[in-house]
Design brief:
The protein has one domain: Orthogonal Bundle (MetI-like fold). It is 74% helix and 1% strand. It has 11 helices and 2 strands, in the order ααββααααααααα. A two-stranded antiparallel sheet has the order 1-2. The mean pLDDT is 87.
Length: 284
Amino acid sequence: MFKLSPKLSQKIFYALLFMATLLVITPAAIIIYIIIKNGASAITWEFLTSMPKDGMRGGGIFPAIVGTLCIVLCAISLTLPIGVCAAIYLNEYAKDNLLTRIIKLAIVNLAGVPSVVYGLFGLGIFVMFMNFGVSIIAGALTLSIMELPVIITTARGALSGVPHSFREASMSLGVSRWQTIRHIVLPNALPGILTGAILSIARISGETAPILFTAAAFYVPHMPTSIYDQVMALPYHLYIISTQIPNMPKNIIFGTALVLLMMVLSMSLIAIVARIYFRKTRKW
C-alpha cells in the first residue's frame, strides 16, 4: 500500500490550507478593490463633514457618521459591563449544574439568532411597550441585547485562559475570591475582553436590520441632542441611497460604503494591534 512520507504529507496539507485561505481572501479583496475604485473619488472633507442635500444626491454624510457613533457607543457602554459581570459569575462562581448548563446553552443559541429578529424584538419592547420611540436608546438597547451573548462568550474565554494556578496562589495567601478576581484574574484577562469588545463594536457598526426598526431615520436635518432623538445611520443610509433614490450618483453610493468599510476595518485593526501589544506585555 502506497504511503506518503511525513514531509510530503505536510507540504500537501499546507498547500490545501493555502488554497482554502485564497478562496476566502480573494472575494473579500475583490469587494474591497471595487468599493475603493468606485468610491474613492467621493471622499472629500465636505463629504465627511456636511449635511445631505438635493434629495441625498449631494452634500455629505456627517449626520449618518455621528448617528452611527452615538448608537454604537451607547450600545457597547451598556453591553460591556453586563456581559463581563455575567461572564465572571458563570466562570468563577457558578456551579456546574442543570441551570448553568441551560444558561450557557441559551447564550450560545442567542448568538445565532438573525439580527432582524432582534430588530423586531426591539421594536416591540423598546419602541412600543417601553415607549422610547424610534430613538438612539431604543437602537442601542436592541444592539446591546444582540451583542450580549458574544461579549459573554468572549469574556468567558478570556477568563478561562488565565491559569488556575494564579487563583490558587492568590487564595493561598488568604485573599478572598473577589479580590483574586479583581486584582489577578481580570487584569490578565483584560486583553481578550477588550479584543472581543472592539470586534463587537465593528460588528454592530455595520448592522442594518436592528436599527431599521428602532433608531434610524431616512433624513434628520439636525444633530442628535439626547438619547431619545431619532438619527441617521450609515448602514441604513447606504441601503436607502442604493435602493430607494433614483439616479443616485454611483460614486456617492460607493463612497458611503467605503466610509462604513473603513470604520469597520479600523475597529478590527485596533483589536489586532491591542491583542499583539497585550500579548507582548503578558508574562505567562
